[in-house]
């Protein structure tokens, strides 16, 4: 019998956190649930734990051979047989309300749903200030529901350099819910579920192309974790920027990777997102979207993004990263047929404008956060089950899931 929901997890060498994720999900006691796990760890710790669970809802595969992270995500997707899919990290979990949302999606024939804001859980980490005992961050929610015009939002995203793609409210399997048939459609078109270097942004753009309808809820249904070994924490600690050869995305890749020539050849959150997003448009045969991409909206984020490491890395290192990112951005004129002088002048112009906007944004944030810091933050949370318990004790607003027919008539 096909499960209603498959939770998709690709994991490697983070057994402790993945075990906590499995325990927290299995504790929900839903029979129409499946957990699809592709394990690429060096040890058999997780395999032994799954065997001890003796839970038929877990569809688990262990492969310790050297494969890329993208390959492991594709393996996890192959294991998922549910009608609806939600992909999470191995240090994340889901909330019970997800089943109410999926039943609504099923009755209203909805392809895709995402949440506007996540609940964030930082695992206990002695290297991070204020996170030594774990930290749970719960934003405010309204319970509202909004339908998104995916095609318009996708065009806006490309025109803006594929920067901060989460704010566009597009479909996503990562901490979102999608019909499995959409992912099958993507695989039939491209030969795989996930491509590029980032499965999140690749699937977001691919899903935006194939989804017939999509809604954003201002209500949480997952918890996004950040364990000490996560990319989120790596970014905070300044190890998520530099030469591309140092990026974990290329580990165990057997064939050379064809980097998109209108993205700076530099390792950062922004470049990985932009490059993988462009790959998705090409592999989905949407050259019209590819041509909308504006490198000059991306470049200031690539260069100024290094400023987030101020106070976390020595100044010479931050300066070196900023210089390297500028150099790689300045050399894009060669591959893209741009005039060298014009190209560098435009970079300086967008950098100046973006720097001023960033300074103003930081100032407004500091002024607006007075007296509010920590109002929705809870410390002393040591695992995902405790995080779920803490969230369940929170008095959320009512989730309003309207009939699509009623909204169309009104």
Automatic annotation (TrEMBL):
UniProt entry keywords in alphabetical sequence: Transferase
CDD domains: Glyco_tranf_GTA_type (cd00761)
SUPFAM superfamilies: Nucleotide-diphospho-sugar transferases
UniProt GO MF annotations: hexosyltransferase activity
Gene3D superfamilies: Spore Coat Polysaccharide Biosynthesis Protein SpsA, Chain A (3.90.550.10)
Domain Glycosyltransferase 2-like as annotated: residue spans: 6-116
InterPro entries: Glyco_trans_2-like, Nucleotide-diphossugar_trans
Name of the featured protein: Glycosyl transferase family 2
Annotated source species: Chitinophaga jiangningensis
């Amino acid at each position: 019998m096909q499960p209603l929901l498959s939770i998709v997890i690709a994991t490697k060498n983070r057994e402790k956190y993945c075990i906590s994720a499995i325990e927290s999900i299995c504790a929900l006691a839903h029979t129409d649930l499946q957990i699809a796990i592709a394990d690429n760890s060096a040890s058999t710790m997780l395999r032994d734990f799954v065997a001890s669970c003796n839970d038929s809802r877990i569809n688990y595969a262990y492969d310790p051979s050297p494969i890329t992270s993208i390959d492991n995500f594709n393996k996890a997707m192959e294991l998922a047989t549910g009608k609806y899919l939600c992909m999470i990290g191995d240090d994340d979990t889901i909330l019970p309300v997800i089943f109410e949302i999926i039943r609504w999606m099923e009755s209203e024939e909805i392809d895709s749903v995402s949440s506007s804001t996540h609940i964030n859980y930082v695992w206990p980490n002695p290297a991070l200030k204020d996170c030594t005992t774990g930290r749970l961050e719960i934003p405010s929610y309204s319970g509202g529901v909004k339908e998104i015009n995916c095609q318009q939002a996708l065009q806006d995203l490309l025109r803006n350099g594929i920067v901060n793609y989460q704010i566009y409210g597009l479909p996503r399997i990562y901490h979102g819910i999608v019909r499995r048939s959409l992912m099958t459609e993507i695989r039939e078109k491209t030969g795989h579920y996930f491509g590029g270097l980032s499965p999140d942004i690749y699937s977001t753009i691919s899903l935006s192309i194939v989804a017939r309808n999509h809604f954003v809820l201002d209500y949480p249904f997952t918890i996004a974790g950040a364990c000490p070994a996560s990319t989120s924490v790596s970014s905070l600690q300044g190890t998520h920027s530099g030469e591309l050869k140092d990026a974990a995305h290329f580990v165990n890749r057997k064939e050379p990777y064809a980097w998109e020539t209108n993205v700076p050849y530099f390792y950062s959150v922004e470049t990985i997102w932009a490059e993988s997003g462009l790959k998705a448009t090409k592999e989905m045969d949407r050259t019209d979207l590819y041509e909308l991409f504006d490198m000059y909206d991306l470049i200031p984020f690539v260069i100024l993004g290094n400023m987030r490491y101020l106070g976390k890395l020595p100044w010479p290192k931050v300066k070196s990263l900023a210089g390297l990112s500028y150099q790689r951005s300045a050399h894009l004129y060669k591959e893209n047929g741009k005039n060298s002088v014009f190209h560098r002048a435009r970079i300086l112009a967008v950098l100046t404008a973006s720097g001023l906007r960033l300074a103003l944004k930081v100032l407004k944030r500091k002024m607006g956060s007075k007296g509010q810091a920590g109002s929705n933050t809870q410390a002393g949370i040591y695992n995902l089950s405790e995080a779920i318990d803490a969230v369940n004790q929170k008095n959320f607003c009512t989730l309003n899931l309207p009939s699509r027919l009623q909204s169309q008539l009104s």
